[in-house]
Amino acid sequence: xxxxxxxxxxxxxxxxxxxxxxxxxxxxxxxxxxxxxxxxxxxxxxxxxxxxxxxxxxxxxxxxxxxxxxxxxxxxxxxxxxxxxxxxxxxxxxxxxxxxxxxxxxxxxxxxxxxxxxxxxxxxxxxxxxxxxxxxxxxxxxxxxxxxxxxxxxxxxxxxxxxxxxxxxxxxxxxxxxxxxxxxxxxxxxxxxxxxxxxxxxxxxxxxxxxxxxxxxxxxxxxxxxxxxxxxxxxxxxxxxxxxxxxxxxxxxxxxxxxxxxxxxxxxxxxxxxxxxxxxxxxxxxxxxxxxxxxxxxxxxxxxxxxxxxxxxxxxxxxxxxxxxxxxxxxxxxxxxxxxxxxxxxxxxxxxxxxxxxxxxxxxxxxxx
Amino acid sequence: xxxxxxxxxxxxxxxxxxxxxxxxxxxxxxxxxxxxxxxxxxxxxxxxxxxxxxxxxxxxxxxxxxxxxxxxxxxxxxxxxxxxxxxxxxxxxxxxxxxxxxxxxxxxxxxxxxxxxxxxxxxxxxxxxxxxxxxxxxxxxxxxxxxxxxxxxxxxxxxxxxxxxxxxxxxxxxxxxxxxxxxxxxxxxxxxxxxxxxxxxxxxxxxxxxxxxxxxxxxxxxxxxxxxxxxxxxxxxxxxxxxxxxxxxxxxxxxxxxxxxxxxxxxxxxxxxxxxxxxxxxxxxxxxxxxxxxxxxxxxxxxxxxxxxxxxxxxxxxxxxxxxxxxxxxxxxxxxxxxxxxxxxxxxxxxxxxxxxxxxxxxxxxxxx
Lengths: 369, 369
Fold this sequence. Notes:
Two copies of one chain form a homodimer.
Chain A: H1 4-9, E1 15-19, H2 22-30, E2 34-38, H3 45-58, E3 64-68, H4 80-85, H5 89-101, H6 122-132, E4 139-142, H7 149-157, E5 161-166, H8 169-177, E6 182-186, E7 192-193, H9 199-210, E8 215-218, H10 224-232, E9 237-240, H11 256-263, E10 269-272, E11 280-283, H12 286-292, H13 304-318, H14 342-363
Parallel strand pairs in A: 1-2, 1-9, 2-3, 3-4, 4-5, 5-6, 6-8, 8-9
Antiparallel strand pairs in A: 7-11, 10-11
């Protein structure tokens, strides 16, 4: 499965895998794809350094990349405390009451909330980059808008390609103007932050808009047929995130979240602002229902919502409070029905792709094999 | 572009075109596809007879079909007057006020509203079938659930295949149980009544669920690349509706609706209950905004909403009141940028499909041509 982009990056298959877990990222690259480690959870540079060391030691010399979350809009001199102060009392009360209603235990004294707003701040992302540029990463992706010009320049000096996610052709064009090398077209069905245009429509629209820049299709891809469909739409590769969450290498194995993911159907996700303040697809839970309820206080804008719910989410996750427990994931969750190794998932994708090509050749009446 | 289903129906290409316009339906079949005439607007049997005569005379002996709207739930002995009586005064007032706000003129005395709820009633659909079964139709499609058992049996006696639209694997399984021959998997991005699962995820899910029944992919398809993608997902053909609206053979040519369709981007549609009471994708207008406004009265359930707005929509369409003027259409509207003949659109689809297959063969490293 070779496109211009996969050749440029020296990977066997044009399958890019985004994951927060180093073991998954390394396994994707070893399997012949391109593993991309999500950096957002590394608020301490040393933690990121430790995990990049691990990836470097387990990737068998294969290429890999890093994904950061740099907000498109730069906010100068605003601290976490400033943002905290902007949160209305009514919303804090709603969090407290909802947690109490479900009997969610408190964190132990001094125990930190794992997921902090700081990971979304440019300053923290820059610290992550300072660490990452010491490693031979081949790709830097940004999940929120184009990275700042100096970051793009710094990446290009190091021969690192820069990718950015886009939910519309307009966003994609902004990325091209910002000197981005690869656009990830993130369809409505994708997990995490996503727009309203479905992959079937979005992918070719973005391909046409930014031509000749390469486009990766994201959203709704979890089988070789879907890989084939994305490539038929003009993408130079696919960008998969959800599918790896239930891999045995993921740090979620045997957790309550994994059980919920394995049980969920394609209709069990919701595009909600409950997580960050911007629409993000995730498992639908009683927590997202509470935030999306027109009789509730509603969500706050980014970054307030993320800060508001950070500790609550840590508690829900730590104590595995099932009715409230969720995770960002796409509609492809319906295909995630068993825990498998990254290699097994990868083999399934590449074999399914070959079968889909066989079928296309038959339908088109081509003789070739 | 040959699949088992296209061979069974004797068409050159596995492209099914749904349209309310006889000239478009006939042109699709003549071009080598399968034209399906929408019957919902024919409340008088003689009108349907006249138009089926026309299709029969212009289809050059090629196969074609009919699409009816038979509600899944049978409501016995309920008249239009009964339904009228269930509409709250507050909602009638909202319609009157909204029309007044935009200065929408009244219809002339005795002038009938063109679009009536009656077209959605089983009794009317049965009258349409009585007419249609006198013609050599090869396919009967139903847009709302499975048709009643006696209708399926009647179709099968006449060697007519029965198709039904589904927005989820669960709906598709119900169709299979009802003896349906073909499932149309209608993705989130499609025009008209549609669910929340995008085509990229829905198509293979429905294919797997109803195997070995053939599945047509609907939603987001307007180019040969998208046809190829849908077939890669396991569909035995594609079902296109939106794309024909801006064809020169359509009865909308040069109208204000056509101008709006040509100008609209993929982000200019909305999935709203404003039209019928069930979520249907359509152009976003100040009319849909008014109904979707949380400060408004909100929409009524089907069939009340359709009856409530029928006259208003006729007035808006007749007088081409631009800010309120809409039509059901999918996200593919962004690709509809010029008025072209059905044949030109068809050639574009088939050539684009061949190019997409060429590209797939290259990416897969196959030698064949």
